[in-house]
Design goal:
The chain has 292 residues and is α+β, with helices and mostly antiparallel strands. The protein has 2 domains: 112 residues, Helix Hairpins; 152 residues, Immunoglobulin-like (Sandwich), CATH 2.60.40. It contains 6 helices and 16 strands. The strands form 5 sheets. Strands 3, 4, 5, 9 and 12 form a 5-stranded mixed sheet that branches. Helix 3 crosses helix 4. The protein is elongated and about 90 Å long. The two termini are 28 Å apart.
Amino acid sequence: MLGKDGKFQVERNSAVVGFLDGFTELTTMSVRRLLFTIFLGYFLLNGIFACLYMLVGVEHIGNADLGSQAGRWMTAVGMSLETLTTVGYGSVYPNSPGAWWVAGVEGVFGILSFSLIGAVIFARFARPKPKLAHSAEALLAPFKEGWSLQIRVANRRSTLLSEVEARLILVMAEVETDAGHLSYYTLPLQFDRVSFLPLSWTVVHFIDAESPLAGMSRADLQARRAEMILTIKGVEEVYMQTVISRMSYRWDEIVWGGRFIRSFSAKNGSMHLDLDRISEHTLVEAPERLPS
């Protein structure tokens, strides 16, 4: 359900929704696609208004090149470029009511278009994004007198995350009744929030008799296509806004018996966090089936 980029792998097919939610689409699409969309729209608008100038008559544009058809088109395109970008070099200009009307309408489109581009760029840069490191695999690890599911996360940025909350959801298919039906379980955590996240945080779900994982084996998780979705939410101190990060662990991304190796140490009076060791763990012997 959830990709490695933290986005749900769901395609929504509706032309109406896509059209009405165009601004959100512009702020979330890839940079390459955004640049392509901007330049495509720019050249398309120029082409439309150049055609309108040709329909009105290039002879109604001052300093127009009327010597050839190519010169007429160059004048129409040049007039459109100057008006749409509001540059106005003055080399060509409208000199009839019809040409002035077209230029006036194009000027409004130019102002609105570049305002929209500026708003999109600002929204993309001003929106804070989390950058969390997380373990490549979840661990079925010893915990107190039993077993637990553990995932380790850390903040990659030097800025501080505060009021950090975690939520772990288990998704499993009901293969015995209907393979297309999914069941969702909220897994209780040892700690579901911390005040700050300066180092790493190991999110722990203790597997007791009330846990949805109680009595299950690795084969059971595979048969039910189990997937863990971890959501981390916190306040980014620079923007003072809430940021949300999601990560997914399928049944084949769970180490059946492991223990995390500490990823931080004290050196020269300060703590040192090695982000490259977030996923490091040792293997331990685990039961074939979890206690129930």
